[in-house]
Design goal:
Layout lengths: L12 H23 L8 H6 L1 H32 L5 E2 L1 H7 L4 E2 L8 H24 L3 E4 L4 E5 L9 E3 L2 E4 L7 H25 L3 H12 L6 H6 L18 H14 L1 H13 L18
Parallel strand pairs: 4-6
Antiparallel strand pairs: 1-2, 3-4, 5-6
């Protein structure tokens, strides 16, 4: 850290490690980029010189702490569930009949791939398990690599959702055994997506990316569903001509980007007009008002 006189504040190595762990737990690699001194957008000198930067920095740290705590709670729930040996699902029957049908054979020991993605998705899987324990009708293990199957009465006839390594499904029968086997493979690929996106940006990145993609490319055009396999997931083929990207969604997300980046756009315009970067007293160049 740097004080207003330009001298560095003493920051212990232990605190740097703590914040790095919090940032990675909360937001993965992107979180690390936000806190590493040479990559984060809020430089120490700028934070101390600008009141608005200080408030923004505090909100950022608070959000990271909250996300990190949620991840730790989820990880703990997942570990506690892993300590209990789940019965193996008879996958096609369980999914097609909408109930837990356990195979008397003990599930096979998880392989390296399954163990790795279980560890990476443990935070969000644990949060899903907490919900399933409150609202569901029991759990069982299915597939190789394994996923956890939970039936949620509140889901009624809605399609199931893969949250981390937990498939939250409707308890109403809706697919035949052959389709159920393909669906298990489809959802297993979604677990791989959860693992990758959790490393890159924490537990919130995949839901956000899926929301953006599904608004632009609905149904079978969704790139996450295409990656997991449209036929296996019960999706129809991609329409010809394609529907997406939808105009209203483009306008929406462009508007969101403009709102989020409006201060930097204003700074860029002002710097271009004046041919130099300027700032008001108590403000950094980005938070200085005025377009010209």
């Amino acid at each position: 850290m740097v004080d207003l006189s330009g001298r560095r504040r003493p920051v212990s190595g232990a605190m740097r490690v703590v914040w790095a762990v919090v940032a990675f737990t909360a937001a993965g690699v992107l979180g690390l980029l936000l806190v590493l001194p040479r990559t984060r957008p809020l430089r120490p000198r700028r934070v101390l010189a600008c009141d608005m930067c200080q408030r923004r920095h505090q909100r950022l740290l608070a959000a990271m702490v909250v996300l990190a705590l949620l991840s730790v709670v989820g990880f703990g729930l997942r570990v506690s569930q892993k300590a209990r040996s789940l019965p193996a699902c008879v996958a096609p029957i369980s999914i097609s009949e909408g109930r837990t049908v356990a195979d008397p054979v003990v599930p096979a020991r998880a392989g390296l791939r399954s163990s790795l993605r279980s560890a990476l998705t443990a935070p969000v899987s644990g949060l899903a398990l907490g919900f399933a324990e409150l609202k569901g009708r029991g759990l069982c293990s299915v597939g190789d690599p394994q996923i956890t199957l939970a039936f949620i009465p509140a889901a009624k006839n809605l399609p199931g959702s893969m949250v981390g390594e937990v498939f939250l499904a409707s308890p109403t029968p809706r697919v035949n055994p052959v389709r159920a086997r393909l669906l298990a493979q489809h959802e297993s690929r979604h677990v791989d997506q959860w693992a990758l996106f959790t490393v890159v940006g924490g537990i919130g990145l995949l839901p956000l990316a899926y929301l953006v993609d599904s608004s632009l490319y609905p149904g079978s055009e969704n790139h996450f569903e295409q990656s997991a396999g449209l036929y296996a997931g019960g999706y129809p083929p991609v329409p010809r001509p394609p529907v997406g990207p939808r105009g209203w969604a483009i306008a929406l997300w462009v508007g969101v980007v403009l709102v989020v980046g409006r201060r930097r756009i204003r700074w860029a315009v002002r710097t271009t007009v004046r041919r130099r970067s300027t700032h008001a007293e108590g403000r950094c160049a980005v938070h200085t008002p005025g377009w010209t």
